[in-house]
Amino acid sequence: xxxxxxxxxxxxxxxxxxxxxxxxxxxxxxxxxxxxxxxxxxxxxxxxxxxxxxxxxxxxxxxxxxxxxxxxxxxxxxxxxxxxxxxxxxxxxxxxxxxxxxxxxxxxxxxxxxxxxxxxxxxxxxxxxxxxxxxxxxxxxxxxxxxxxxxxxxxxxxxxxxxxxxxxxxxxxxxxxxxxxxxxxxxxxxxxxxxxxxxxxxxxxxxxxxxxxxxxxxxxxxxxxxxxxxxxxxxxxxxxxxxxxxxxxxxxxxxxxxxxxxxxxxxxxxxxxxxxxxxxxxxxxxxxxxxxxxxxxxxxxxxxxxxxxxxxxxxxxxxxxxxxxxxxxxxxxxxxxxxxxxxxxxxxxxxxxxxxxxxxxxxxxxxxxxxxxxxxxxxxxxxxxxxxxxxxxxxxxxxxxxxxxxxxxxxxxxxxxxxxxxxxxxxxxxxxxxxxxxxxxxxxxxxxxxxxxxxxxxxxxxxxxxxxxxxxxxxxxxxxxxxxxxxxxxxxxxxxxxxxxxxxxxxxxxxxxxxxxxxxxxxxxxxxxxxxxxxxxxxxxxxxxxxxxxxxxxxx
Length: 556
Hints:
Radius of gyration: 25 Å
CATH class of the largest domain: Alpha Beta
CATH topology of the largest domain: FAD/NAD(P)-binding domain
Structural class: alpha/beta
Oligomer: single chain
């Protein structure tokens, strides 16, 4: 692991209208040196401090390189200043075992893409198998579905190159601990592929659907340039094994591809794959996740709530993160908050309807939304099976489809609350102050009885949680806010078990990413893909160290 030492200056507070040179001037002042003594510097973190509304500050952490750092640190005596050692990411040293066939990566979401990216970069020439279409064609399929209601079960918001996160807000923050530098390496690779440089230091980094589509395409092109191969319309429908090890995968029920390593990086909606693995007795278990509804408010209202002022071009669209603990013990919390975004029809199966949230890079839509979700556990699923959570999701999605008549069902929070509790939410400030407020939804939608989608106990928990949040966040529980449903794909309902080597009980099969139950978002899934690439590399030599003459197209 490569290391470099710098001085970090924290809490560099500046007004909204500051210039870039003001950052290093103030950082140098805190270090008691002149700006001219700074050899180099970079922004390590940037955040907005809106605690003293309406006075808002931009707060930086700045990493500074100077000639004699020890002397500078000795005379600072400030809690704002500290020495930092950056641990640069380092890939695994290659192992000694020989690969007879190229590694197969099943799925091209963040986990699969980043696993394949690192394997390709280091000479392993992976074969990526993706059931859906490339991101350019996938985008056309998704927009046609939103416009005309024509669903392609293999190419939609859930399936296709880039995974489910491609048609979301593109948030890149994660709570995963990162002592190996994977988090920063994910951000660096994204930026290198065309994402804005700000993701390297923004406290709440995001890319946006429009930019993320281009970034995903460039990652694929780089994998191919390094000797990898990416095949679309290639669904793995079966797994071959012998003597407790994987021997190959079957694509589209017809073609068998031999392999001794396969990375199972399917998404959280690969229900038919989960069923196939279960039939093959691949160990897996039902896991807890969360379900709920999308909640929309006017973006201007959220901006005023968070910043104490109307929309300001110097400020990003405001975000929030809220949580509540209900009397039943269930947690209710916001998830995948999309400032200036849209609710989207995220269905992937016919006559079943799921929603998600999405923002473009500008986050300039008229509404802001988030999922408001409640925790569920295997005890809620009604059956004892590793796939019980999948069945639970499907029942909710079938109700949502039926209630909305195939369109996304929408209901005001006031009507929802009244139906669930029998009590009124009170006068709506949204109806008074934002008379033109309407749902911002990609895909057909209609007003309907959203309150009939979730089981009664979950609906009651949601109302209690929203009301509790509304007590501390003014306007959140306004009766004029819109709810739509169902938000059922928050994370995988199963975990495909693996050991410390990253392998399933079926040796050579590496469950990976969100679908396998080891991640919860774009960045954590990408980091898990990197981890699995490292584990494969630590065991096997690259193809470039085995034979440059090896023909890997057919695995021979």
